Amino acid sequence: MQILVANPRGFCAGVNMAIDCLEECIRIFGPNIYVYHEIVHNKYVVDRFTREGVTFVDAISEVPRGSVLLYSAHGVSPAVREEARERDLRTIDATCPLVTKVHIEAVRYAQQGYNIILIGHEGHDEVIGTMGEAPESITLVESPEEVDTLSFPPDAKIAYLTQTTLSVEEANAVIERLVSRFPQIVRPPKEDICYATTNRQHAVRTLIDRADLLLVLGSQNSSNSRRLMEIGQSAGKSAFLIDGKHEMQPEWFEGVETVLVTAGASAPEVVVQECIDEITERYGATLEEVTTREEHVTFPLPKELRKLQQA
Fold this sequence. Notes:
Strand order of the largest sheet: 10-9-11-1-12
Low-confidence stretches: none
Mean pLDDT: 96
Strand content: 15-25%
Structural class: alpha/beta
Keywords: 4Fe-4S, Iron, Iron-sulfur, Isoprene biosynthesis, Metal-binding, Oxidoreductase
Cofactor: [4Fe-4S] cluster
Order of helices and strands: EHEHEEHEHEHEHEHHEHEEHEH
Active site: 126
Helix content: 25-40%
InterPro entries: LytB/IspH (IPR003451)
Largest sheet: 5 strands, parallel
CATH architecture of the largest domain: 3-Layer(aba) Sandwich
CATH topology of the largest domain: Cobalt-precorrin-4 Transmethylase, domain 1
Number of helices: 11
Binding site for dimethylallyl diphosphate: 41, 74, 124, 222-224, 266
Number of strands: 12
Radius of gyration: 21 Å
CATH class of the largest domain: Alpha Beta
Number of domains: 3
CATH superfamily of the largest domain: 4-hydroxy-3-methylbut-2-enyl diphosphate reductase, catalytic domain
Oligomer: single chain
């Protein structure tokens, strides 16, 4: 058996920044701090910080007045920020800069009088935060079929934005239908789907024909991880999204000669290596790492945290 290890995989710059931010907050304030939603969508990461004493909440009302609160990498709406101010919370913003870019675009288009079509998945933390920037101006669509139900007049002033973690093919299918229905639609100056999402999808597409089985390390609520699994399934291959080696099933490997292993942008490398070690030990597999694109992106810690470091 052979293991193909896709590169790039795992943590992106935004996830690295958010985790570094939380670690630094623990160093400065101690572990008795709060995070609004999961810092990133990964069970291993969230469980690790929970064991250290961090509390993850789904409502600002759960945070005691005057506490330290970290906003997750997925971003939050202005209403959440206002509620935090009213509770006198000391907030640190770990929103990924690429998500912030989409928020800024939403505000700008709304101020210019555009009807904004947001391509994304209902209920995702990032989508909720983005729609909160201009709720009266934004309409969410998930599929080309939903585009057909839009009731804007043919000459309406329309722009579109996308969730940063979508499948490139999924987003393009919706965009093509939007352009067909509304040729005047305005697109963002730069693509919203993040570099890491695109690169991890490209790696799987490049390598999937060589594999019989695809294993994606990531959590079920990670949008970008699910897209990687779906690429494998669309190619007619067995593909599974797992949090770690404990979820691997022996029957998956029956008759398999080549396993492709990758990880979503919020999955730590340690879980990848544990799976590789398990497969190697169990099946005597050989290892080949294939790099399809180079990544050198980094994001600095939030300005308010850098000031605290210097104090």
